[in-house]
Fold these 4 entries.
Entry 1:
Amino acid sequence: VAFVNRDTAAAYGLDPAPYGADLQRVDLNADQRPGFLTRAGFLQSYSHFDSTSPILRGAFITVNMIGVDPGPPDPAATMTPPPMGTFLTERDMVTELTKPDMCAGCHAPFVNPPGFVMEHYDAIGKWQDTDPRGGPINGPADVAFSDTVTKTITSPKELMTELGTGSVARRKYAEKWVSYTTRRDPNSNDACIVDSLNTSLSMDGYTVLQLLADLTQADSFRLRVREN
């Protein structure tokens, strides 16, 4: 399900003609658009202005949903110029860009693979089978879900199914709500309420409204002192 208007319909492969300025609920292709990672808002936010960014998309998924944080990049690495040569896909270019030793240790096993799986969506979120560089999209990648578990993922739907059925993404979701409402980074003081919300989220019918209500009853929310 998505909400589109005449300005965003085309990003989902829909004819914008029947739509007006107001958002309208639509049912999308369940294989191509299974969840929020396939929505234009996420895809555009984690792209460059003129191309996709497997690195930005992959880093978000790895850190915020898989729960593996490889740490900040080497400052020198962020200044690395694009590699020389002709590349038929953004994936090929990024693979070459992140090949140096100071990059490869994090990018090859953790950051790049989930971003490569999402390459079927262009910079504004439209589905693409051919890369703007001219080559066919190569989506399958070996995604690390922990230091010991790596699975070959062949499609965005498979990636989101793997994330959605696992426990890590659900706990990270609860942790993000606690961090947002307390306006601080996650810490050990919040572990109990995060665990409680995580358990509740596994129950059928549990809503975000209930999550927020339960969160406000936690001691760590009600009794914390200023700046703590």
Entry 2:
Amino acid sequence: GSRFKDLYLSGGAYLGGTGAANKLDDYEEGTWTPIVEDATGNAASASVTGFYTKVGRIVFATVEATSINTTGLTSSERLYVDGWPFATSNLAGSPNRTASVYANHISFNGGSAMMAVFGNNSSRCAFLNTQDSATHTTLLVSDLTSGTASMEFSIVYEAP
């Protein structure tokens, strides 16, 4: 009939077995500063916030970027968000992880949904416009209305 109020472990907890792969010994949460940039690493000025929670190797991260000013970026290059708190793991297949993106003052040619896409062993993501199950268009800097463009998304991915 007794209950624990709090449980503090100095070395972690084993879930579902006693092997090393069953040990949960890593939990972390915090903030980070996303960097909106072009393919060559020129950073846009923007109001950006990022939050993350990491449990083991699984990372849940959110990004909010508003008032994205693309002055100084190359308009014909892909748009990226860089500076993630953890790089992605090297999983087979591409893309590594995807997330739907809410976007404002960003225009694509056709399509109905934008998604954030990580590659393997990457610390930055690109954006695709999904036109159908086989056709995707890459988001370019020129697709943003400079100064008023914004995007918000959350993504779950695996860190190494």
Entry 3:
Amino acid sequence: MLRWRLILGVLLVAGLAGFCWLDAHASLPGVYLGPLAFVAAALAAGEMLRMFRAQGHDPTAWTVYVGTLLPVAVSCVAVIGYAQPPVFSIGWLALALVAGLSVAIIGEMRRYESPGRSIVRLALAALSVLYVGGLMGMLVQLRLVEPYGYGLGPWGQLLPLLSLIATVKLSDTMQYTFGRTFGKHKVAPTLSPGKTWEGTIGGIGSATLISSVGIAYILQGSAGLQPALLAKTAAFALAVTIVGIIGDLAESMLK
């Protein structure tokens, strides 16, 4: 199992790096990564619908898809045609979330027949809009973030995205490794029976250390291993690993 986790993790990061390389050298930023994010969001929206229906709920399918994909589509357009600072584009993401929720409300209004079920269907559609569309839209927005001053050229705009995904996958692999080797105490026995405190702490520590050193080295080479920069990259890696664990538990809860 560990071998396959390592292989799949490397393939995922390598595949994303390939798309990033194409995107970094494209005439329009986001022209390769945008469609990839759109397809991923569509598949995630379909999975949300499947989970809702498995629990006996039936939100309006088209509102889930349209409402979820709107924030992603608007974020992609903002990246492809960006000419403003990232904060401006995040404003467009906020407007797209409002539009996505409006689509869900209108869809349920059209479907309304009697009181009792509309609020549940609307709540589930809104969950997909925010959880899938909003978070994927924020992930797309990372394409606009550039570590200015490090002279990385086009790759500078891709480093936040690549480092985020690589750190999460590294943390996941190291948690599994430490958990299988030393794990005894469960973090959430009912929610995620396989997750242990030993694996979680070991994964956080090792992923934070490896990622922070690796990112600092990419930014400034061997001269980048300076306390100030290492503190910044360590804070980033630590935050990403903790949020990744919360996201993993949230996914288990939804399933």
Entry 4:
Amino acid sequence: MNSVQGTTNIPMLGKVRTAGALCAVGGAGWLVTGLLSSAISRPQSVAYALMQVPWIIVQVLLLVGVVGLAFSGAASGWLGGIALGIALLGRVVFVLAEIHSSILVDDSILQPLGALITAVGMTLVGIAVLRTRLWGGWQRFTPLLVGVYPFLLMFPFVIVTGEPNILAIAGWGLPWFLLGYAIWTSVAAERPSRVS
């Protein structure tokens, strides 16, 4: 049974829906902040230090989104539990990475680690969501899209060039936006049937 089912969990539905909206805002913020960061040519500058504030906010919003996804029940079972734990760890590492970067005024070694842990976790979450079949339509593919995006579009740049590509990194915001919207719409669609 979905963890947000039943009329006794109406307040939980609202929290999950809010988490989805915040995740969507975080995804859009990731895209915009990434594009703005591409204009900053070098770390150890005032502009770089200032960009850490929106990055920290974005990372927290995406962390809230993963928490909302966990409470939605879309990735239930043992695989979902393990996968969500890994994804949450990745998001926490990302928040710490941005705080670390703001202190260093330089890139943190934790950033690629956070990306890798998040990508692995969200790929497994995506598989769990597909297995549980609690979400239908395009929504059920969004967690998997968040997970595989770095493997398809971010990590290959690092492997080939030895440097991250900020535009590819910025693009990761789009799947996060879609995931947030999927969480929001899935809960919104469930609410009328659960109250009747």
